[in-house]
Amino acid sequence: MSPFVGVYQELLTETELRELVQQQATAPSYYFLRWSHQVSGIVDKLPDNFPSPEGQMFNCDRELRWKWQNEGYSVLVLSNTGEVLGFKSIIDDTEYPRKSENKSYWKTEQRPAYGYLTNETRFPRSLIYPQSLDVRNTSPNQPKLAQRYFIAKPTAMVHFVALTVDMPK
Question: Residue 48, SS3?
Answer without folding.
Answer: coil
